[in-house]
Design a protein that fits this description.
With 135 residues, the chain is mainly β. It has one domain: OB fold (Dihydrolipoamide Acetyltransferase, E2P), CATH 2.40.50.140. Helix content is 13%, strand content 50%. Strand 2 and strand 3 form a beta hairpin. About 4% of the residues have low confidence.
C-alpha cells in the first residue's frame, strides 16, 4: 500500500514572509497561515482558528516572497513534514510544517491591485530538494 501525505489549506497570511538562502544557494521562504472554521454550539456560533507554518523552496519561494502579504488570502497545496530535534535540556521536540508544492494567492483589495498586477506571476509547482533549512 502506498502512503499518502497531502494537504490543501486555505486561509490568510499571518505575517510577512521570512526568506533565507541555504549554503547551496537555494531560496527558502517561510510564512504562517491562519485558517478558521465556524461551528454551532446550540444556538451560538463559535470560531476555531488554527495557525500553520508553511515552507516553500526554490523558484516557488522567490515568487511567494513577493506576493505574500499579511492578511492576504492564500491556498496552499503541499505535504506535511515533521522536524525532530533534541533540545539542550535533553528533551525531544518535534514540529509539523507544511512544505508547499503549489501556492495561489487571492486578489488583493482595490488599493493594492496596481501593485499586485505588477508582481503577480503564476506560482507554479517547484522541484523539492533534500536540503535542510536552518532557521
Amino acid at each position: 500500500m502506498k502512503n499518502l501525505n497531502s494537504i490543501i489549506l486555505e486561509g490568510n497570511c499571518v505575517r510577512e514572509p521570512n526568506v533565507t538562502i541555504t549554503a547551496k544557494g537555494t531560496t527558502v521562504c517561510t510564512f504562517a497561515v491562519a485558517s478558521h472554521r465556524t461551528y454551532k454550539i446550540g444556538e451560538i456560533f463559535a470560531k476555531e482558528v488554527s495557525f500553520f507554518d508553511i515552507e516553500a523552496w526554490g523558484k516557488l519561494a522567490e515568487r511567494v516572497s513577493h506576493q505574500c502579504k499579511k492578511g492576504r488570502g492564500v491556498r496552499v497545496v503541499g505535504r506535511l513534514k515533521q522536524n525532530r530535534w533534541e533540545g539542550s535540556d535533553g528533551k525531544k521536540n518535534s514540529k509539523i510544517r507544511i512544505v508547499a508544492e503549489n501556492i495561489e494567492f487571492k486578489p488583493e483589495t482595490k488599493q493594492q491591485e496596481t501593485s499586485f498586477a505588477k508582481n503577480n506571476v503564476p506560482v507554479a509547482e517547484t522541484k523539492q530538494t533534500d536540503e535542510i533549512a536552518v532557521f
